[in-house]
Amino acid sequence: MNDQCKRISLLCATGCVMLCGWRLMPALESVRIGAGSCPASAAVISLPEPQPETTAPLPETTAAVETGTVTQPVVLAPAEPPAENPLIINRESEGSKAMWHSRLYQPTQSGNGGEIVDRHFGTQSGDLFLTLPNGGQVRNTTFWSNADLLAESQIPPQLDVKLDGTPMVLIYHTHTTESFVSPKTGNYDESFNFRTTEPDKNMVMVGDAIAEQLAAAGIGVIHARELHDFPVWTGSYNNSAETIRAVLEEYPSVCIALDIHRDAIADGSTVVAPVTEINGRQSAQIMIISGCDDGTMNMPDYRENFHFACRLQQTAETMFSGLTRPILFDYRKYNQDMTKGSLLIEVGSQGNTLDEAQYAGELVGQALSETIRQLAENQE
Prior knowledge:
single chain; alpha/beta; Aminopeptidase; nine-stranded mixed sheet; five-stranded mixed sheet; 7 helices; 21% strand
């Protein structure tokens, strides 16, 4: 009898231990954050500082400094990709999708970081600027004279575009995690880092808006939603170049490749948001960057990119006056050696709202659709 009591007591004790262990399991689980992990009970992580990939800053801009820790708020999962459209091919690796939750969007709170000031960038004056006949300007910082560059700007782009749904346009994002404020309160929180891996709140959101407008116009588009700058920022352009090469190999009909970014404009702690009003609604302004080869960049077709940039700029200004800032024509490469219609487009700055940036994406998509339509008709 004593042995039987002992066995019963031992079984009861074992059950209690197992029950307690099961109750403690949630506290011991780990949450994957980028390349590392931290206990679920810990909500603060430190991320490496991004390093600049270019030697010269953009005109009138100052790169935002991202310091400190990032508090991970409790939020719902990022929105799923937009509904399937036969003219939109969304591409993203499973590895990229798995990182959606790694750097959650942090809404502004106390506003102790500094002021956000809206500013409209209108017509610029000075020797660096030339005005295009049908609207918009070019900021020329190259060996080209303004007179020669103006003549060059009037050459039609030589792009084999079609309106039959064949994939024509590639939209991608070298700095995919770039983001915006929301809502705009006139200031921003000191801990807000203007970056997130959530695709409905970073540059993927803007790319989706552009793609939807292209598809609505019957133009085939591929949207590469890949995270190219996370978890490591350095090497982003090499990463996006791999994406471009893969797309061009699979879809050789693509002749336009647009790298959609957002700018960073600051004066000390004051952030500047480039804005304009289109059809009664405030939009972020955009800036096209077209690279010039100084003989060291291996971009033999850079003039073709510039022809396309000028056509798109003039169409955008004709349709939506004030939407654009001057084209930056400078010694930049940015993977613009990959097609004859390769451009980088800055949509707003870190001071614009998500809504302003998304609306700008819609307007860019409409202007791009009209540009392609005109080019296709002129080929007939």
